[in-house]
TrEMBL record:
Single GO cellular component term: plasma membrane
Membrane-traversing stretches: 398-423
Biological source species: Escallonia rubra
Reported function: May be a cell surface adhesion protein.
Compositionally biased region (Pro residues): 333-356, 366-375
Residue ranges, compositional bias (Low complexity): 376-389
Family assignment from sequence similarity: Belongs to the fasciclin-like AGP family.
Classification via PANTHER family: FASCICLIN-LIKE ARABINOGALACTAN PROTEIN (PTHR32382), FASCICLIN-LIKE ARABINOGALACTAN PROTEIN 8 (PTHR32382:SF5)
Name of the protein: FAS1 domain-containing protein
Record InterPro entries: FAS1_dom_sf, FAS1_domain, Plant_FLA
Region of interest (Disordered), ranges: 332-396
Membrane topology: Lipid-anchor; GPI-anchor
Pfam families: Fasciclin
Subcellular location: Cell membrane
Length: 424
């Protein structure tokens, strides 16, 4: 009985640990001085990245300072500038005034983008005379232009929010802007990332044009690697009607800017570009530690790497072709009318009975000698946090890393406590 009680306590503690404990948007919401800062955290989706991390410090700017920083800069530039204001360490006012040797360099979220050469991704915190604390870029020659003004909020030792009087600017961060979405050549980026088959398909089907016209309002692509199309179990795409192929390809896209940190916090099923009145075409997101998996109801795939994160465009690679249940669901189709074998019909837009995933009787143009369905993208490590930051070629990231080791350690401590109690 006691043991059972403890078991419940331990299990719930573990469950809480795996879930994010803070919500920066909610923390700042009651504070009108930071409403502009908060608005930008939401728009750039940095809020999601902040919410998936522990032991961090957010240096906030009041509305006037934040408005001045944002200026007319594109979202991707503002996002990088704000990333420099998220320190990957917990500093409450006490710790600020107790910095050893009076000065320290601390890592920021900007460093995790892999696009901050030298010390650009670090912030210098220096305990100045008279109780003043100065902040500045750690890049050589930078001044400590920003000062700590006051403590805003702390949830020890998860997140600390401190106000500084001026933005911290790293050299070049505002003037040499991160690539904006309009600079990104989608097909070139996909080809470079090893997704040539996907490029061929979206080009020949005309879906590329749909993607390109969606970019300005926000677009996220999940591009299957070339290996993914060769894997066993991938249906013969040559047997799909045009409309089905278009739906399948549009199923690999979201009509929103959804960077990795945001994917991680997504709980409800997400709609895709293929979603329409007649078909759900949705995806479920599953997160385990650093890994994000997309579940279609028919198959699932790991999100393997971030190819582009340039607000408002995100491109990821995925290990498997995402097979929408609307086309490939195994359940006997509700069949509005008889199901013809395959008719190259002029494209009904509703759910169309399709060949079952296993029934690749005819050789697929994409089918080739055995490739394991779960094979990792060429050149990338198959597992582990490092996989997420591979191939990051743009202004981001996917460097979003929550130490899975912490969760693991907690789970194993919990289990050993349970076992020892049960044995005693
Ligand atoms: C954080 O709070 C905002 C505003 O209440 C909400 O829209 C958002 O979904 C929350 N985020 C998470 C991860 O719960
Ligand atoms: C921080 O900046 C100050 C002023 O430029 C410099 O004297 C100090 O050495 C820097 N601290 C570190 C840890 O580099
Ligand atoms: C800090 O986060 C942990 C879980 O990550 C949570 O259990 C704890 O309550 C949080 N502390 C505060 C003060 O919110
Ligand atoms: C984009 O890259 C492709 C190669 O993948 C190239 O053929 C095309 O001309 C490029 N488009 C633009 C607008 O530069």
């Amino acid at each position: 009985m006691g043991a059972l009680h403890l078991l419940f306590l331990t299990l719930s503690a573990v469950a809480i640990t795996a879930v994010t404990a803070h919500n920066i948007t909610d923390m700042l919401a009651p504070l009108p001085d930071y409403s502009v800062f908060n608005k930008y955290l939401t728009e750039t989706k940095l809020a999601d990245e902040i919410n998936t991390r522990d032991s961090i410090t957010v240096l906030v700017l009041n509305n006037a300072a934040m408005t001045a920083l944002a200026g007319n800069h594109p979202p991707s530039v503002i996002k990088n500038a704000l990333r420099l204001h998220v320190l990957l360490d917990y500093y409450d006012p006490t710790k600020l005034h107790k910095i050893s040797e009076g000065s320290v360099l601390t890592t920021t979220l900007y460093q995790t983008t892999g696009n901050a050469p030298g010390k650009l991704g670090f912030v210098n915190i220096t305990d100045l005379k008279g109780g003043k604390v100065g902040f500045g870029s750690a890049a050589p020659g930078s001044k400590l232009d920003s000062s700590y003004t006051k403590s805003v909020k702390q949830l020890p030792y998860n997140i600390s929010v401190l106000e500084i009087n001026q933005p911290i600017i790293a050299p070049g961060i505002l003037t040499a802007p991160a690539p904006s979405a309009s600079d990104v050549n989608i097909t070139a980026a996909l080809e470079k990332a090893g997704c040539k088959t996907f490029v061929q398909l979206i080009t020949s089907s005309g879906v590329l044009k749909v993607f390109e016209s969606a970019v300005s309002k926000g677009l996220t692509l999940f591009a299957p690697s070339d290996e993914a199309f060769k894997a066993k179990g991938v249906p013969d795409l040559g047997k799909l009607t045009n409309a089905e192929l278009v739906s399948l390809l549009q199923y690999h896209a979201l009509a929103s800017y959804t960077p990795f940190g945001t994917l991680k916090t997504t709980k409800a099923p997400i709609t895709t570009l293929a979603t329409n009145g007649a078909g759900k075409y949705d995806l479920k997101v599953k997160t385990a530690g650093d890994s994000v998996t997309l579940d279609t109801g028919v198959d699932s795939s790991r999100v393997a790497s971030t190819v582009v994160d340039a607000t408002p465009l995100c491109i990821f690679t995925v290990d498997n072709v995402l097979l929408p249940a609307d086309l490939f669901g195994k359940s006997p189709s509700p069949a509005p009318g008889p199901a013809p074998e395959v008719s190259p019909s002029p494209a009904p837009s509703g759910p169309v009975p399709a060949p079952a995933p296993g029934s690749a009787a005819a050789p697929s143009p994409f089918l080739s000698p055995p490739a394991p369905p779960t094979s990792a993208p060429a050149g990338g490590p198959a597992e582990g946090p490092a996989a997420e930051s591979q191939n990051s070629s743009s202004d981001d990231s996917a460097g979003v890393v929550i130490a899975p080791a912490v969760v693991q350690a907690l789970v194993s401590v919990a289990l050993s406590v349970i076992i020892s109690v049960l044995l005693s």
